Amino acid sequence: MIEQTLIIIKPDAVKRGLVGMIFESFENIGLKLMVAKMVRPDKEVIKNHYPGTPEWISEMGNKTLSSFKQSGADVKKTFGTEDPLKLGQFVYDRLIKYWMEGPIIVSVWSAPHAIEIARKVRGHTIPYLAIPGTIFANYSYDSSPLSAGLNRAVKTFIHASGSRDEAEREIKYWFDGKTEFKNYEREVDKLYLK
Amino acid sequence: MIKQKALLIIKPDGVQRGLIGKIIKRFEQVGLTIVGLKFEWADKEKIITHYPETDAWFEKVGQRTLTNYAKKGLDAKKIFKTDNAIAIGKTVKGWLIDYVQESPVLLMVVEGYDVIEIVRKLSGNTIPLLAVPGTIRGDFSHDTIDLANEESRPLRNIIHASDTVEDGEKEVNVWFTPQELFKYERADEHLMFK
Q1: Is B39 a domain residue?
Q2: What is the pTM of this model?
Q3: DSSP state of B101
């Protein structure tokens, strides 16, 4: 039942001074911080955070296609292509550039259903499409058409693992193969975990 | 005027009570820049180096403890097996070392103009009972020296903040390597000081 999830606070959120607010949002729910570090990784490290396979790149392209559709914007006009793989590659390159705008904070959080809960509280990947009450909706208006028009990635300022497998892979990746962190007591443990 | 750095440690009582985000937020709000951050179990050797190791410091702490015990009518000799101020100071340091190791701690380096004055102001009086509302210790605790002495334990005061510019430099070097510190501009910096 207890899961661990990887949360990354990206450069724009660090520069806006949103670190405390983001930590607080997860802490208030009862998610337990296990480990964290501020880092400024180079291009390769960021690139390999993602699976980077052709299937994955195409999937990113498809996501871009569907968010353009939802926003009523013309993909072909912006990118000159509707091919998911080419589109995905564009997005991938811009994503890496975005991650390199400043230091980031990488952290691991633990709780029952941690993965789903972190995603729920963060909100839809595209802030413009996120529902009110989620962090993305409350702290950003960024959208696919806006970012594409400015030749940049959508500033999805919180990364949260999408599944158990993804979480495990990502935690290992960012913390030198480690997935287990020494536990400690939070004030809610006695109330909810006993 | 040049910017200076201060070290902050959110201690186990702050961590275990889920106050990390709320505390980070207070430093971000006033416009300080987080230039280093990590959450980990504190290394014992580093804690020992962090606190002063001179007889003068031990004596000061020991003497303060003796005075407090005498005021409360408590027998210091019975608890410490000595009435030597230096020896008592060493015991108190031992308590502090244990306290900081009760859970992981959040280590953070903040940078700004007059940063020491700001972190001291926001943290409040080191004795939570005496810290005024609006400060971290005043808002999140009411522990006292008397209470701590009565129970032969360290004062739990949530946060450590560097005391002087020199301490700040020393402490940052104890806990952080140059590779763990970053330079970047906050989004609102040019608006605050233009």
Answers
A1: yes
A2: 0.94
A3: T
